[in-house]
Amino acid sequence: MIRLLPLLLLSMPAWAQPGSRRVAVLTRSTTAPVVDGRLSEWSPGLFALSPPNELGLAASITEEGSIASDADHSAQVWLTTTPGALHLAALVTDDEVIATHEAPELYRDDGVELLLTKPDGALFHLGLSASGKAWLFSPPGASLDGIRVAVVRAPPGYSLEVTVPLTRFGATDRTLDGWRLNLAARDVDADGSAHRVWSGYRHNLVASFGQLVVRQAPPPAAKIPPCPPPKRTVVVDRPLEARAGGLFVADAGVTLRLVNYQPAEDGWDAMWTHFDTKRLADDLQRAVQVGANAIRIFVFYATFGEHQPKPELLQRLTTVVNLAASAGLVTVVSFFPFDKEFRKSAWPGMGAHLETIVKAFVGHPGIAMWDLMNEPDHAWAQDGGVRASEVEAWAREMTSRVKRADPTHLVTVGQAGHSALPFVDVVSVHGYFDEVPMNEFLARAKALGKPVVLQEFGRTRLYWSADEVAAFDESVCAAARSAGISGVGAWELFDHPVGSLGWSKTPWKESEENWFGLLSTSGERWPRARSFCRCLEAPALVVRQPAR
């Protein structure tokens, strides 16, 4: 991977200090990515690489025209090498993608350019069109044999991958250190064209190129063994009950070890629009293998049909709940993950949405509880214009409606931690606030006299190492044991590829949300998966599905 370092000069090692205007770090890996234009292997994923180089107004030089903003045109670029090839990936933001030309005029398209110079000054200049075609500026007349390119177009731009045999450079992965490198992303608009150049003052000014430094990619994470088998098993043949500050099935106490779930590559509402039952079944088995006996999933108001839920989507929800039950998992169904609307004029539609869905599951043992909204207290704590009393009035009304439509299941509301709702059956809280000690945070929740579930906790590996995240989880689980709560919920089962979380984040931008998984995007266990195995003493569940 390449990373841009102009803001880190004070912390640069000695080898990175003088001589070059920019220093580019390229990792040496052992596994080559699949050239398909989908970047799930890049970050986080196959190479465990650091954040990418940013090609934007603040960090680059624009030539041949003007670029209005990063939303008009910008890019993130990764580089890695394997013994036989150099690999580049780019996520390009471009409000108007133009890729209509053929050779020899491909350079007139939007695209990305890679420029390398050997110590003897020989230049390799490769152009990559947003159409998925490549051309060589230099050496002139050279063959494109062995160069593979793939592009995926998706708003607000496109993703691109290319693999170039190192024989094209007369190099091996061991001889690239000290070469010069430049990167450019080209934007073509109706009013002219522009290059966005990373390391050089101009794309053809070789003397200003950055220095390429090759470093070995970190070794893969140690193999994390499977979880030990639970010490007891509980048969769930009816909905859970809340009494005596705990969760029960008949006389058997149940502690939930819950994992928040959405597929690695199709997060948020894409789980429902790109519905894949085989993938779901495989993922749910992975959840069981990391010690979970419950999952939490999200239902999206608009996607499901707002006040009139679509039968097809309702059937998909039923499929997930039943697949989870077959795997030994009960399901917390969480509504309105991003639809923070509390005006009374919206209540009828939101209420109808809830009532229609919960009626379909009356008495189903696979439903652990209905979670009426994800973090409604964020709306008044952060956004302004919404009062805490409005949030509470909404939650009280929706609780009443759900209880009438389905009196068999527990009701909760996943609170960020700013407030508590005393009328729910289960107090669900999210534990991300370092300023409040976890013991104190959970004691406040327990004081309400209801079962308490720490519905979300975790730290992102974008900012903390995998071992630091596991140590944090251990401290949370110790506090949960001490408080005697009824469940814990890891955020979340999988890491997510860059570009797959566009619902709540700017598409194509990596963020902390990509790095919270117990598992990598391809299913390998991170160290926090071992901590999760030991988080509370949770029984295995045998969930009886209702007769049809």
Provide the descriptors you would attach to this structure in a database record.
548 residues; alpha/beta; Immunoglobulin-like; TIM Barrel; 2 domains; 13-stranded mixed β-sheet; 8-stranded parallel barrel; 10 helices; 26 strands; 20% helix; elongated; disordered N terminus
Can you describe this structure in just a few lines?
The protein has 548 residues and is α/β, with parallel strands linked by helices. The protein has helices spanning 270-273, 277-289, 301-304, 311-327, 347-359, 377-383, 388-405, 438-446, 466-483, 527-533, and strands spanning 23-28, 53-55, 61-63, 73-82, 85-94, 111-117, 123-129, 134-138, 148-154, 157-165, 180-189, 192-197, 210-216, 233-236, 241-243, 246-249, 252-253, 256-260, 294-299, 330-335, 367-374, 410-415, 426-431, 452-457, 487-490, 540-543.
What are the segments in which pLDDT stays under 50 over at least 5 consecutive residues?
1-20
CA(first)-CA(last) distance = 53 Å
What is the gyration radius calculated from CA atoms?
A: 26 Å
CATH structural class of the largest domain: Alpha Beta
- CATH homologous superfamily descriptor of the largest domain: Glycosidases
CATH architecture of the largest domain: Alpha-Beta Barrel
By DSSP (H or I, 4+ residues per run), the number of helices equals 10
Tell how many strands the DSSP assignment holds: 26
Sheet/helix structural class = alpha/beta
Q: What count of structural domains?
A: 2
Q: What is the mean pLDDT?
A: 86
Strand portion, in percent?
25-35%
